[in-house]
Amino acid sequence: MGSMMRQYSLLLLILAYPPISWSGCREAQLPRDCETLCNFDQQGQVINCELRAAVLLPADSRYEISLFKVLPVLDMAVYAARSLKLLPHWLKLTFLAQDDGCDATYAQIGAIDSYSKCVHVFFGPTCDYCVASVGRITKFLNAPLITTGGFTFDFTKKKKTCQDEYFMTIRMGNLAFRDIALFLIDILDEYAWKKIHLLYDTNGQAKVAGRHTCQLMMKSIVEYIKKRRDLEYGTFDLDATKISEYPQILKEHVGTSYAVSWIKTS
Questions:
Q1: Alpha helices in 63-141 (DSSP H)
Q2: 257-261-266 Cα angle (round to 5)
């Protein structure tokens, strides 16, 4: 909790002092006076400033990251930043919560609704399909998407120009499915294993990244294994398999093709 609050405090500080003004990736800009961060008097002095952030998360505590868990942390981060005098007294922070239901369609609708309320930044979504649907349009809305989700390898690709698919999508955190894939490959190299069979449950661990979390992780692992011509792999989805059937599945799909033979000598 403390680490998360420090991250949000730093994030709020960065957002409070934007270094440049940028018009985004859209050629035809729509006039939106409400995007202005601050209002000034005739002498050019700041009257008030408001930073509006859309929080796109599921309103379901079964997910690891939800509105019920994150909104209190955001309030604590604001309090901590103000206590340390990192945020000026004239800056108001407004969080506009939107329940995306961990569903890509509702996440995109929530993003568009938030855009109509002139938000400056999106916090979330975190479910991978939601990150994909919103991440593709934020560069045209001229509002960055900041997420602790986006684990699939697609989100770890270069995001430096408007031509990049997820430009203006910013991942917070050091771990993604890419890192799990590279870690697994390191283990294979350590023991000189050249064949691997990946058994997974398509919708396993849905509380982490939504639908197809495990399938998306396996997709990322396969993406990196394929880059190694010396490695062979196979996959099998356990989604429709009963636990009682696992021994037979292991015999059929692992068997002697992927197993290791050990000879014990006395």
A1: 67-83, 104-116, 128-135, 138-141
A2: 170
Give the Cα-Cα-Cα angle 226, 161, 7 (nearest 5 degrees).
Answer: 85
β-pairing verdict for 38-40 and 46-57: antiparallel
Angle value at C-alpha 97, between 102 and 88, nearest 5 degrees: 135
- Can you say how many angstroms the Cα of residue 207 is from the centroid of all Cα atoms in its chain? 13
pLDDT in tens, 72-92: 999 999 999 889 888 888 888
**Among 231, 232, 235, 233, which Cα is nearest to 249's?**
235
| CB neighbour burial string for 195-223, b if at least 16 within 10 angstroms, e if fewer | ebbbbbbbeeebbbbbbbbbbbbbbbbbe
Average pLDDT, the chain: 85
Other CB atoms within 10 Å distance of the CB of residue 159 = 16
The Cα 215–Cα 218 span in angstroms is 5
Residue type, 41: D
pLDDT per residue as tens digits for the range 136-169: 999 998 899 999 999 998 898 888 899 999 999 9
